[in-house]
Amino acid sequence: MSSNKNLSKISRLVGSIEIPGDKSISHRAVMFGSMAKGKTEISNFLMGADCLSTVSCFQKMGVEIQVEEKVVTVEGKGIDGLKEPSDILDVGNSGTTTRLMLGILSGTPIHACIIGDESIARRPMSRVTNPLRSMGASIDGRENGQYTPLSIRGGNLKGITYESPVASAQVKSAILLAGLRTNNEKTTVIEPHKSRDHTERMLRAFGVEVHEDETSATVIGGKELTATDIFVPGDISSAAFFLVAGAIVPNSEITLKNVGINPTRTGILDVLKMMGATIEIIQHDGQSFEPIADIIIKTSTLNGTIIGGDLIPKLIDEIPVIALLATQAEGETIIKDASELKVKETNRIDTVVSELTKLGANIKATDDGMIISGRTTLKGNATVSSHGDHRIGMMLAIAACIADEPIQLIDAKAIDVSYPTFFEHLAQLSK
Ligand SMILES: O=C(O)C1=C[C@@H](OP(=O)(O)O)[C@@H](O)[C@H](O)C1
Ligand SMILES: C=C(OP(=O)(O)O)C(=O)O
């Protein structure tokens, strides 16, 4: 489904918005609620297309799930409660749904087929299908299980210690979720850098013990999950677009409310501080399993910086909009160690560089990231495309706020994947 938007410069951004629920946490709440015994009520659920794909896949496996405007109720029937689906499980555009669901299905004695859209069909799945096979799952698919369509039949699993070549919460979560299905065996995932730990935190909320250290996580199989109510904090990856907008649109001051500030996700806040942004973080008291804050950002004078190493997994989805931020910073910004960008919804090194270049940015691709020289005036008067990638679409819509001439954005609809109210929020803040 394609849709285009004409976007113009904005004189200032003022006011406050409530950031919609976190995508990673919304997916997990539906999945873990489906595996648990009892009723899980999820509030502030993200009504984005990706999370609705997760809901529909678990409904097809017989789980009763009701969705009523940001409140989702899941009637879990326990870890053995999933039924063999009579239809294909369609994950749409969602890598998280695909990889975590493969982990869950690995130890479930049913057969399932998984397909998604054309972007999903290009995303590498061997990073989960290979370790899951080594635990005992039968998985097949295009190019020996590297790409969708995939088919899976769960088996009797054994625990493994898996040293992942990539820092990926999707890989870690898939293996840990499979590990829960072993008979009292230990499963450990070791990563090169720590990835987001929402799975570990939420499993504990569902009553399952998870052992964590600096870069590893361990579960013991055979434990039941107990249903619990989950409040989903606002998604810092969605907040990132308005954090950058607030910093680069002149005379702005905006407050972003209820933003999740899990330290494995706050790389964007570190970068804004490193670049000299005026930012205030007011943490809420009495949090449950994920910390939450209101964040105030003002128009800022910015300097270039170097972003790499263990900061990368903490901001991987924010790199497109960080590249835009860097076009408005004095001097050079180097983003390195980020080759994972090549296997997201698009090759985000290529799409960021090609679309920002059309707007007049001084940006070049490297093997594992990009180098941006600022500060440049974005001229606009160009047609750019999301390439079907929600984060590229939102980055370009924020670029339009400061470009001298209007921009036409092709396929703005892609934004619905993670932030369906994005344009309403932008309009609300625009003065
Ligand atoms: O576990 C998750 O919810 C996610 C993990 C990250 O992917 P990787 O695990 O591939 O790094 C991230 O890019 C994605 O948007 C969501
Ligand atoms: C990479 C992303 O999501 P997923 O892997 O779930 O498709 C994203 O939201 O930027």
TrEMBL record:
Its main location: cytoplasm. Gene3D superfamilies: Enolpyruvate transferase domain (3.65.10.10). It comes from the Bacteria. One of its GO terms (molecular function) is 3-phosphoshikimate 1-carboxyvinyltransferase activity. Phosphoenolpyruvate binds at residues 23, 95, 123, 170, 348, 391. It holds the Pfam family EPSP_synthase. Belongs to the EPSP synthase family. Catalyzes the transfer of the enolpyruvyl moiety of phosphoenolpyruvate (PEP) to the 5-hydroxyl of shikimate-3-phosphate (S3P) to produce enolpyruvyl shikimate-3-phosphate and inorganic phosphate. NCBIfam families: aroA. This is 3-phosphoshikimate 1-carboxyvinyltransferase. It comes from Metabacillus malikii. The gene is aroA.
